[in-house]
Amino acid sequence: MTDTLEDVLDRAREGIDRSEALGEAQVAVLEAALSLVRAGRPPVAQAPSERAALLREALASVRAATVATGIAVTRAHRSPVAAQLPGLLPGKAATRI
Prior knowledge:
Blueprint: H1 2-15, H2 21-39, H3 48-78, H4 80-84
């Protein structure tokens, strides 16, 4: 399973624009998944310190994904398309166009 996730992560890193918040969030989620799968290996296959390091890496990736997703949401609400569709924004009443 880790080989498949590593391949997907490699492809994502090559094909996703990480300068955009959404792209960074996508890659961070894949990094977290890989770290969690690695941490889930049987205890005899790794030292406790290695497992703890993998779990810390997963947590850091999830935090990065959360921040990047929050930025992507904020930018989506500020986009020119969103400005043209005020009835679709949260907290706004639908208007007739």
